[in-house]
Design goal:
Layout lengths: L1 H23 L2 H31 L14 H36 L3 E5 L5 E4 L1 H7 L3 H4 L4 H4 L3 H9 L6 E3 L9 E8 L3 E8 L1 H35 L7 H32 L8 E3 L1 H16 L4 E6 L4 E4 L1 H17 L6 E9 L2 E8 L21 H6 L6 H11 L3 E7 L3 E8 L4 E2 L1
Parallel strand pairs: 7-9
Antiparallel strand pairs: 1-2, 1-5, 3-4, 4-5, 6-8, 8-13, 9-10, 10-12, 11-12
């Protein structure tokens, strides 16, 4: 209100001057004075309007770029400067908030895609680009169904029924299985959230395979035992030799089931991350002499077994677990080496690392099978494995023992020439 009265007083003052000139001189002089003042005011306003228009057309709208003004325009430009400064601060805060949001969403393990009502991509984070094989810089504004062309995904978006997630197994990023959730929000917008569930799917597959394998491994001996028990229960069956043979076979099958259950319990304990390794100094030489005796008993003179000790260094670890790992490698060598074959058990030190290895002259392993040997129940020849008494869990146990001792397993084999299973222990596990 004060500015209005100030500007009104200026106009009244000009009118007063014109009236005084009219009274002192004449009307023509007064009108000429008034016209000159009005023309100057028009020019003054036009000049500032042109300056304002030029400023509006510039790309730089910072407060420092606002033109200088005089008179009433000085107040206008001052107000404009304060408004631009406040707007710039708001823009900076908004940009910082947006940058933080982008950093947060970029760090998220889930993919996020913002879709409009026509399923066009408005924005996505890097994880969504990885999961769905899209690119924000190239695909913004494109319909996502043009890029992710799986029919089940297209039908999922078209159905508008988003209560249950969609599992997509074949995306543009091969080898990844993703779970997709759609959350409607705002004005006809949708949030598409993708989650990599490849690891969980593999775990679920392993669980199903594990249950199927255990069921299969137990079903056969149980069927045999049940059949023999039914035979023995027959009243008219009194053949002692036959009964003795049946009891022997039943004993073999129950022993097989017992070994399987024992290995499952050992594997379960090793996989328990809360159970720490009970470390102590393990005399490897004494341990290997005991394993040699067990190997000779298992071989029953069918193989030539040698023990080579090149170092007397000891190991820091669990003697029980190391015995299990070493024993499994030695027993495997005996099972898969034909009669009269050679097996060597070795302990030495190389490049400050402890090296235990078992060398045999057995049947060997094809290269394609080697990466999967430590999987549970993985067998190259199922019939031969069962004939030799293996449970299919030995190398899985070895793998977990080595993981708990920061050691690594190395397998070298050639079909028909034998195999070599080596365990490398880190230097910090050796005790001289």
């Amino acid at each position: 209100m004060t500015d209005i009265w100030r500007r009104a007083s200026n106009l009244l003052f000009i009118v007063f001057i014109a009236a005084v000139l009219w009274m002192i001189l004449d009307a023509v002089t007064a009108l000429m004075f008034l016209s000159g003042v009005l023309l100057w005011m028009v020019f003054h306003h036009l000049r500032h309007l042109v300056a304002l228009e030029h400023w509006l057309q510039r790309s730089d709208h910072s407060p420092a770029s606002i033109p200088a003004g005089s008179g009433a325009w000085d107040d206008v430009f001052a107000h404009l400067s304060r408004y631009v400064r406040a707007h710039s601060q708001s823009q900076e805060l908004l940009s910082l908030a947006l940058e933080r949001m982008r950093n947060v969403t970029s760090a998220m393990p889930d993919g996020i895609v913002i879709l409009d009502d026509d399923d066009r991509i408005e924005w996505c984070n890097p994880m969504a680009e990885k999961h769905l094989g899209i690119s924000l810089s190239f695909d913004a504004g494109q319909q996502i169904t043009y890029l992710v062309r799986q029919m089940q995904f297209v039908a999922f978006l078209a159905s508008r029924q988003y209560s249950n997630p969609l599992t997509l197994r074949q995306t543009r990023q091969q080898g990844i299985i993703v779970s997709l959730h759609v959350i409607p929000y705002g004005y006809n917008q949708k949030l598409l959230i993708s989650r990599d569930i490849t690891r969980f799917e593999k775990i679920e597959t392993m669980r199903r395979d594990f249950i199927a394998n255990v069921s299969h491994e137990l079903r056969t001996p149980l069927t045999v035992v049940a059949g023999f028990l039914e035979t023995l229960s027959e009243e008219n069956h009194e053949n002692p030799d036959f009964n003795r043979r049946i009891l022997l076979l039943m004993t073999e099958q129950t022993t097989r089931m017992q070994r399987l259950i024992e290995d499952l319990l050992v594997l379960s304990r090793l996989e328990n991350a809360q159970e720490k390794v009970r470390e102590k100094t393990v005399n490897v030489v004494n341990l290997l002499h005991e394993i040699l005796q067990d190997a000779q008993s298992l071989s029953a003179g069918r193989h030539r077994i040698k023990l080579n000790i090149a170092t007397h260094d000891q190991l820091l670890g669990s003697e029980e677990e190391l015995r299990s790992a070493f024993g499994n490698l030695v027993s495997n060598a005996i099972r898969y080496t034909p009669d009269h074959g050679e097996i060597s058990i070795n302990w030495e030190k190389r490049a400050d690392q402890g090296l235990f290895y078992v060398q045999d002259s057995g049947i060997g392993i094809e290269a394609e099978h080697i990466p999967r040997l430590t999987e549970r129940f993985y067998r190259i020849d199922n019939s031969r494995s069962r004939e030799t008494g293996g449970t299919g869990l030995g190398l899985a146990i070895v793998k977990h023992v080595l993981n708990r001792h920061q050691a690594r397993l190395e397998i070298n084999s050639q079909v028909g020439q034998g195999s070599r299973f080596s365990i490398w222990f880190p230097a910090n596990r050796l005790i001289s």
